[in-house]
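Write out the 3D structure for:
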Amino acid sequence: GVPHVSPGNAPDHGYRGMTDATPATVDTPWPTRPDRETSAAIPSRAGIGLRAPHYRALLADLPDVGWLEVHSENYFGGGGAPLHYLEAAREHYPLSLHGVGLSLGSGDPLNREHLRCLKALVARFEPGLVSDHLCWSSVEGIYLNDLLPLPYTEEALRHVVARIECVQDYLGRELLVENVSTYLSYTHSTIPEWDFLGEVAERAGCGILLDLNNIYVSGMNHGFSPGAYLDAVPRERVREIHLAGHCVNHYPEGDVYIDHHGAEVALPVWELYEMSVRRLGPMPTLIEWDTELPSLETLVAQAVRADRVQERCLAGTG
């Protein structure tokens, strides 16, 4: 599923992640907050994705969730209600910034304006984690409303590693990359997806945001074992887990699983999550929900369930 954000078709300024030096430091238009803990760590608890319809309810109720995550691009503006509410929420919760617009696998140059906005947002809100997707989404400066899969080849591996290194150098911090859900595969691919993800993280020195719903969806679509994928991921590189809902479209040729972020987490994904906790240990875990948005209470209930899975695994019960 693709969150409803608009990275914009900002002009390219010639910054090619493969060859150019790191851009000069960008002046931050906002002050940092001296009375707030710098880069508050994301706890090994469940958090929720904060969406605009829940701003007021969250601030009124201050539910007991471990942290919040927002889509970076929704806060690239210079002011307005979104930044106002995020500033208020940040006073109460650790924050993670999750992007959809870096287009790390694209042949386009890295978008300097996007990076400038992201760096300024990081300076203002001091997030514990910053992430984007291991995919491509732009062609010649035109952004597509999708997170498109890469061919899993040595050439693509070198390409994305160099670009991730450039982004990390520019931001001055670790970037997490997320595995995306896929509905097709390339005959040109020579590396299993899980090995590609792990090798990217090892070579680039970045973290992994492991989306378990995406693993399950892709496994059902392509016929691989989600558990085997989980076992192959280098545990020392995983920093965060995503959980979300999916749907199944039925066709005469067979079923297609869709990562639509519009339902509660499905039972098989909960089972995969329990496997992940037993293998990786407690981990910051996000409940994602972007379509058919439920009440804040429903989101919180899903986060509570994730916390209970972690507690049960730690206690060695269930």
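Residues 53 and 293 are 8 Å apart (CA to CA).
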